[in-house]
Design a protein that fits this description.
single chain, mainly beta, 2 domains, eight-stranded antiparallel beta barrel, 20 strands, about 50% strand
């Protein structure tokens, strides 16, 4: 899997843009490796297809910088028990100083979120143990019509059902009509110019922000707070992907969400920290009677949660 500088992590290092293209029925699980009882942590992806209970694909590990290390993986999936077994395998291009991971991941599906967790161990080419730890990987299922930067990296409920088993196929997505556009004027407003209530918040992974909502519509604007420096975010509304690893700029991205549920959830995940840490995204949540200016501040891989509770 990789060089033993930290217990290792399979190397044929190449730019991420060269490897993101894949079959739409491939599943990408994305998360973190926690090495040696949390002494180090790295972003990790497992990308695979399934055929007759066997899986094949590759893993990606971000040790440093933006270029991940890539390694071939193979294994099996038990759809009845909800277990993915995989191991990284050596290739002729690997150096002699590699550590390859093997793991049994227990996966669950809650709503539209797939979560796979489990311990792993690393062995070198002589089968000598070179590291251990645990990992947590996730995937949020989306509809084909949702606004995804690279739709080939996300699969639908039906495709995931074929790959993982019937338990996914039995969780259909409700219809969702979302309007979106890019707004050139960063100071514009989708509704009234004067609001009787304007409130400012800062939100981070330290805890959720809870807001009561009195109307059936929510306008959400998102852009980079301060000077744009390459911050990228993933925006999820009620479990559905709205923006996938999107680079925010001074131009506002506007969404109009129907508030049809009593409890609604907005997640803003920091994909990176841009050129000037941390990742800072500004959100403007608005209805006819109120406006909330919210700054999301997070380190890479962390998320801000905003709960929208519809007033009864």
């Amino acid at each position: 899997m990789r060089q033993k500088i930290l217990f290792g992590l399979c190397v044929a290092c190449m730019p991420l843009t060269a490897i993101v293209a894949q079959d739409k029925k491939s599943l990408t699980l994305d998360g973190r490796l926690n090495v040696n009882k949390g002494s180090a942590s790295f972003r990790y992806q497992l990308v695979f297809n399934e055929n007759g209970g066997r899986i094949s694909g590759y893993s990606l590990t971000w040790l440093t910088g933006v270029n991940p290390n890539k390694c071939k993986v193979e294994g099996s999936i038990d759809k009845d028990k909800g277990v993915i077994h995989f191991k990284e395998v050596a290739s002729k291009n690997d150096s002699a100083n590699m550590c390859y991971l093997e793991s049994d991941l227990k996966y669950t599906i809650k709503g539209k979120e797939i979560t796979a967790t489990g311990p792993f161990k690393g062995h070198d080419e002589k089968n000598k143990m070179c590291g251990e730890g645990n990992m947590t990987l996730t995937h949020t299922l989306v509809r084909d019509s949702v606004f995804v930067k690279d739709s080939s990296r996300r699969i639908s409920i039906s495709a995931a059902g074929d790959l993982l088993g019937k338990k996914v196929a039995n969780t259909p997505l409700p219809p969702l009509k979302v309007e979106k556009k890019v707004v050139e004027n960063p100071n514009g407003s989708p509704t009234a110019k004067d609001h009787p209530k304007v409130t400012n918040f800062t939100v981070s992974a330290d805890g959720p922000l809870n807001l009561d909502w009195a109307t059936d519509t929510l306008y959400l604007w998102v852009w980079d707070y301060g000077k744009p420096d390459g911050d990228r975010i993933t925006l999820i509304f009620n479990g559905m992907m709205m923006l996938d690893e999107y680079e925010i700029t001074g131009k506002k991205r506007l969404f109009k969400f129907p508030i049809t549920r009593d409890e609604n959830r907005i997640e803003v995940k920091a994909i990176n920290e841009g050129r000037v840490p941390p990742n800072t995204a500004r959100l403007l949540l608005e209805c006819k009677s109120a406006q909330y200016n919210i700054t999301s501040v997070n380190g890479q891989g962390k998320s801000s949660i905003i709960n929208i509770n519809k007033a009864k």
